[in-house]
Write the structure tokens for this entry.
Amino acid sequence: MSVGNTGETLRQHLQLNPEVVSVGKVAVEDNIIQSISLETKTVGAVTVRRLDTDAAPGLFELYTEGLSEKPRRLFTPYPLFHTPPASAGELASRIANWGKESDWTALVLLKDELVIGFALLKRFHTEQVTSGIAVRDDFLKRKLGYLLQSVIVEQARLLAVRKFHVKIVSDNMASMRLHEKCGFRQTRILSPDLYKEMFAYLSGRDQRDGKEAVERQLVEMTIDLHETTGGGSA
């Protein structure tokens, strides 16, 4: 499929997304999304752009100022945020080093040059393909998580990825519903022993808030792209 046809197919799929009013310019290179201009129902014009070092200051601000403590703590994709970067410069260095690898792509969602969301697809040359998304606190409940995950699903299609998964804390019902809407289905429960730091934080957070600690699990949800159709299911 030519680049032009790839971009046009991507445009058609995204145009079917109920949160999208219109799709403007689309740029795809070697089956990797470079940029997409969109008009959305909830926030108007936005741009999806492939992550590069120039986006480091905006992404650092999103992570340190745009996300409250819990989503920041839970969203720690390696290697960008597995340990919190101390500065935008450090984050730019991580982006540059990650750029030397060939099995990932990441996208920032921009509103008037403000980074309001982030999404990634990683390990797509392996059988353990995974994705993740984050949305700025001020832009929650505007269906941007659904939009970002839909774009990641389309990116996976461009790369001929058959299926990929996400990991979600079991009491994060909003995220589970979002991914179900995108076509994901629960496939397994992961042992808390593998994620001791995350669950220790959540239990401690409950205690600090004066709430009884909740028993949580980590849920793996998987989407099989051979079972879904472009645009409508995602």
User: Anything to note?
Assistant: Residues 144-158 form the longest helix (15 residues). The longest strand covers residues 20-29. The beta strands are 20-29, 32-40, 44-50, 104-111, 114-122, 130-135, 163-169, 185-190, 218-224.
